[in-house]
Amino acid sequence: MIPGEPNSLSLEDLAKPVIKKDNELLIKTIEVGIDGTDLDIIKGVHGEPPPDSKKIILGHEALGKVLDSGASVKKFVKGALVVPTVRRPCNIASCIPCRKNESDMCITGRYLERGIKGLNGFLSEYFVEEEDYLVEIPSSIADVAVLMEPLSICIKTFTIIDKIQKRLSWEAEKTLILGAGPLGILFTLLMKSKGYETVVLSRSSEQSSKAELIRLIGARYYSTISTSSADIKNSEGGFDIIIEATGVYEMVLKSFEYLKKNGIIALTGIYNTSHQIQLNFGKVLLDLVLDNKVVFGAVNSNISHFREAVSETLKNYSRWKGILHKITADKIKLVDFPELVSKKSNFIKKIITFK
Ligand SMILES: [Zn+2]
User: What global pTM score does this model have?
Assistant: First the structure.
């Protein structure tokens, strides 16, 4: 794939990667999940190749098995199942977040991301990765482990929400998730498991498979097609927590309408900067102040969030597996991927399997 060049996706035979440093491992890829970021790179609107190349190997949601390791590797044995993190630190001395293993909060913007920005991804039969960027996966959750990357994003967002909520001496009760894509579904699963009454609003119809999945989790579902903002406010009142996972700015505006006093809005979408709207910004700001509301943005995740994603999945596996299996049900072979993309099929999530 040549970043910036739409539909330049191709399948190529490459040499098997080799371990070059003592702290590296050779991994056999088992599964790679495809998400909206990959589709944006394929469309040519996102992505940056490694410095020595015009092309980038896609893929940043992966599960693999350790085949071999460098001399200093201590944490993983051969045969261990691993999930790699995505972002690599900028290594600039003044960047405290990167120095503290929190490259998701990098302040220089000179971080790299596997399969997205300046580094090849995992959509190949083998990949090499450093020990510090891998998380071990217990075999009991291997069947859903390809979702650890998107789940780690939900964990990061929830961790921030929880810290903000703790400024108050009472618990939040009601959550609204905007969007029912894979991330919206994972947010719903997480918030329900944390004990929140959860409502989901998205553009898919009330009869869609996404809506069905949301109801299966035990959340209420509304479609923007058949429900007006006034209807939602009438039947639901307001929400203590709103997680925006669509990237559509109209949804952000709706979230301001639905938020209760002292509420929290988490923005996790990638918003189009070419959209301009007329807005009474003074009123938006005044409402934030007078109602003690908090709005924050969250992107990416660090290794601590991946580890927590693993422990939450282990803890909730029996309750979550049915839903997680539905999200990962659409498995295809790598050879079929370019054709699928060229057909512009409308899919929720594809899992490319190398088994
Ligand atoms: Zn940094």
Answer: 0.95
Three-class SS of 22-55:
CCEEEEEEEEEEECHHHHHHHHCCCCECCCCCCC
- Number of domains within the chain: 2
Instruction: Give the residue carrying structure tokens 């903000």.
Output: 164
Q: How far is the CA of 305 from the centre of ligand 1 (A)?
A: 17
- Distance from Cα 128 to the centre of ligand 1, integer Å: 22
Query: Among 299, 305, 307, which Cα is nearest to 82's?
Result: 307
Give CA–CA dist 36/183, Å, rounded.
Answer: 10
What is the residue-averaged pLDDT of the chain?
94
Same domain for 189 and 289? yes
Q: Which residue has the higher pLDDT, 251 or 323?
A: 323
- Supply 40's token pair: 């944006």
Rounded CA separation 292/282 (Å): 15
d(CA 314, CA 335): 32
Distance 96 CA to ligand 1 centre (A): 7
How much distance in Å is there from the Cα of 180 to the middle of ligand 1? 32
Domain assignment present for 17: no
